[in-house]
Amino acid sequence: MTEQKLPMAESPQGGVGTAGPPVEVEASSFRLVGTLTVAGALAGLAIVLVFQWARPQIEAYQARVLAEAVTEVLGGAARYQTVFMDEDGVYKDQPVADTATIEERIYVGYDEAENPVGVAVVGAKAGFQDVIRLIFGYDPDAREVMGMKVLESRETPGLGDKIEKDSTFVNQFVRVATLIQAVKKGRERGLDEEVVMITGATISSKAVIEIINMRVEELEDPIGTYWNSMGASVAEQEETPPPTTVGGGAP
Amino acid sequence: MSPRVTTPQHDLLRGIWRENPVLVQLLGLCPALAVTNTVENSLAMGLATFFVLLGSSILVSAFKNLIPKQVRISAYILVIATFVTIADLVLNAVVPEIHKALGAFIALIVVNCMILGRQEAFASKNPVGRAILDAVGTGIGFIIALTMIGGFREVLGYGTFLGYPVMGASFEPWIIMILPAGGFFTMGFILLFFAWWEERKTERVQPRRWMHGVTSEVGGAD
Predict the structure, then answer these.
(1) Which residue from A32, A35, A58 is facing B93, i.e. has the nearest CB?
(2) How many Cβ atoms are within 10 Å of B35's Cβ, its own excluded?
(3) Of A22-26, A79-83, B126-130, B156-160, which range is least confident?
(4) What tens digit of pLDDT does each residue of A182-237 get?
(5) Nearest to A39 among B78, B90, B173 (CB)
(6) Pairing between strand A105-110 and A116-126?
(7) Which of B63, B60, B117, B100 is nearest to B83 (CA)?
(8) Which residues of A154-182 are buried (b: 16+ CB within 10 A; e: fewer)?
(9) Across the interface, do A158 and B179 touch by the CB < 8 Å criterion?
(10) CA B87, CA B64: separation in Å to the nearest integer?
């Protein structure tokens, strides 16, 4: 590409007193850089101010959506507690760092009587068009999925999006045994671990089932360990009288 | 070439119909085809673009003498990107469901050539008042075009309008209308109608023209 000289670059600086049309003065590099710097700084300031205003609302919405999803997939748990996986793959009540990703967390649901009912796990995998992210409830005692809710998907409207909109499909995940087996419509054998796929959305349905199976296989053992330790502590609390003074500090 | 002299009324009305950015100039087609599967999404995208266009036009027109010619495009993009980021954050905070449905297309308003085009062709050469009129007209024209496409697609694709059922219980939705192909079909039919309308009007004024060519006003795409 050859560089072309702009007409104004050839004109004398200033051009005062010359006849004819006014001559444009070429702006100095300092002015060019200065203009963009000032504009950039002002733009940054405006964005920061709006971000400061918007962030609490965005976070509150995300927390609300997650809370609703956790409650839904755990069959209406009264409350839930977030549990974090440490670098050894063991679940702890406290995060190792502030940056625990959503995949490193599970949500333990409790009923009204404070008994643990199950854990909610997030998983993601490529579907037909884009990544499908979902959350499902898992009962470690019965080794069953308690419910499933799609959090994010961009599957084909009218076909693939039935994985979240078709209640017949979604309801199959309530109390289904793991690992789930995907079957085509009309080939059901009445097994506990069967889920019938949606006709016309086989890839999306399969992806949902694969996400759940993948996460169950990955986390079955660490969740089981944590679940048993929790059961032991609950039993211990029931046997021993409650302490009169509350001791502080982490174990 | 001397600039065309226009009245304020012309500045406002031009973008709404005669030089509609989508239907006549074929600008901003990317969002016009991608997010118009429902009226709600179309309106949200239209309003976000309107806000960005209006804000950018005001700033560009107000500071046109301070922006050196050599860096004007960078400066316009900076101004547009700032307004887009603000629109993105506000939509996410106020209407998160719609923000989720529009996805990456909000961020892509930055590269909507309709907005940059109005800055370069109008706002940078005219006083603030006229830049506002032009932005309002063009923005309304964009909203009308998107809502028109979104209306057709939602009614035929879902059997609803703004979420309310309008086609009766026995209606079987045309799924293709909410898929990308439906966007192209709808756009094609609307453009066909406009071309036919324009041709009929021309024929009335100038009957028996020897040859009808493709209208020369069509420009480009994103």
Answers:
(1) A58
(2) 25
(3) A22-26
(4) 888 888 787 788 888 888 888 899 999 999 999 999 888 888 888 888 766 655 55
(5) B78
(6) antiparallel
(7) B60
(8) ebbbbbbbbbbeeeebbebbeebebbbeb
(9) yes
(10) 23
Q: What length does chain A have?
A: 251
The Cα of B55 is separated from the nearest Cα of chain A by a number of Å equal to 13
Which three-class secondary structure state does DSSP give residue B161?
strand
Nearest to A193 by CA among A209, A170, A214, A205: A209
Structure tokens at B123: 């706002």
Report which of B40, B25, B31 is spatially closest to residue B105, judged by C-alpha positions: B31
Question: Residue A58: phi, psi to the nearest 5?
Answer: -65, -45
Cβ distance of B71 and A53 shorter than 8 Å = no
Taking contacts as CB-CB distances below 8 angstroms, the residues of chain B near A26 are 70
Cis peptide upstream of residue B102 (ω within 30 degrees of 0): no
Burial classification of residue B60, based on how many CB atoms lie within 10 Å of its CB (0-12 exposed, 13-18 middle, 19 or more buried): buried
Lowest mean pLDDT among A42-51, A90-99, A194-203, B150-159: A90-99
pLDDT at site B70: 87
- In angstroms, what separates the C-alpha of A44 from chain B's closest C-alpha? 8
What integer best gives the mean pLDDT of chain B? 85
**Does ipTM surpass 0.85 in this model?**
no
Rg (alpha carbons) of chain B, rounded to whole number:
19
Do residues B175 and B157 lie in contact, with contact meaning Cβ atoms separated by under 8 Å? yes
Is residue A24 within 8 angstroms of chain B, CB to CB?
Answer: yes
| CB-based contact, A27 to chain B, within 8 Å | yes
- Give the Cα separation of A80 and A120 in Å (integer): 9
Question: Tokens standing for B206?
Answer: 């100038």
The three-state (H, E, C) secondary structure of chain A, written as one string = CCCCCCHHHHCCCCCCCCCCCCCCCCCCHHHHHHHHHHHHHHHHHHHHHHHHHHHHHHHHHHHHHHHHHHHHHCCCCCEEEEEEECCCCCEECCCCCCCCCHHHEEEEEECCCCCEEEEEEEEEEECCCCEEEEEEEEECCCCEEEEEEEEECCCCCCCCCHHHHCHHHHHCCCCEECCCEEECCCCCCCCCCEEECCCCCHHHHHHHHHHHHHHHHHHHHHHHHHHHHHHHHHHHHHHCCCCCCCCCCCC
Residue type at position A85: M
CA torsion sign for A193, A194, A200, A202 is positive
Best of B64, B69, B119, B174 to disrupt the A interface by mutation (most A CBs within 10 Å)?
Answer: B69
Closest listed residue to residue B135, CA positions, set B20, B55, B221: B55
Contact assessment for residue A134 and residue A151, using Cβ atoms and an 8 Å cutoff: yes
